[in-house]
Amino acid sequence: MFQSTAYSGQKEKDYQLLVKQVDALSEGEHDHTALLANASALLNQFLTDVNWVGFYVWKEDELVLGPFQGLPACIRIGYGKGVCGTAIKEKATQRIADVHAFPGHIACDGATNSEIVVPILLNETIYGVLDIDSPNSDRFDEVDQTYLEQFVHVLEKHLAG
């Protein structure tokens, strides 16, 4: 069962707890919308200095907006377009310190200055992406990337189940 726990302020320790929380929160649930909705809410509660946290799901050769927390967003993103489409094309996390310097960046929220996008793969097949935006430049570091990738791996396990 999911237990809400206060965070300690120690980044790695708190991320480890977050990964355990998404695993517990997702246990036994098979509805993808429900899983992604709770995951976006959990991340939004945990992360500081972010203005958008959510998912895009791969459908009919493009990313389609899924559950999220934040302002209204772009509904569809093409393969290889923007940070999200690039993450899908390269099947690799994109950690962008300055989105304004990223060629082809899609500006859904003009307040966004940095972004991290983690691809979601089920059996090496594109499922979608976790997309997190921040109004701060260079908001995401290697620790964020490591643990957000772990967070996605836990989600992949539940989405595949």
UniProtKB/TrEMBL annotation:
<comment type="similarity">
    <text>Belongs to the free Met sulfoxide reductase family.</text>
</comment>
<protein>
    <submittedName>
        <fullName>Free methionine-R-sulfoxide reductase</fullName>
    </submittedName>
</protein>
<feature type="domain" description="GAF">
    <location>
        <begin position="31"/>
        <end position="160"/>
    </location>
</feature>
<dbReference type="InterPro" id="IPR000614">
    <property type="entry name" value="FRMsr_CS"/>
</dbReference>
<dbReference type="Pfam" id="PF13185">
    <property type="entry name" value="GAF_2"/>
</dbReference>
<dbReference type="InterPro" id="IPR003018">
    <property type="entry name" value="GAF"/>
</dbReference>
<dbReference type="InterPro" id="IPR051330">
    <property type="entry name" value="Phosphatase_reg/MetRdx"/>
</dbReference>
<dbReference type="InterPro" id="IPR029016">
    <property type="entry name" value="GAF-like_dom_sf"/>
</dbReference>
<dbReference type="GO" id="GO:0033745">
    <property type="term" value="F:L-methionine-(R)-S-oxide reductase activity"/>
</dbReference>
<dbReference type="GO" id="GO:0005829">
    <property type="term" value="C:cytosol"/>
</dbReference>
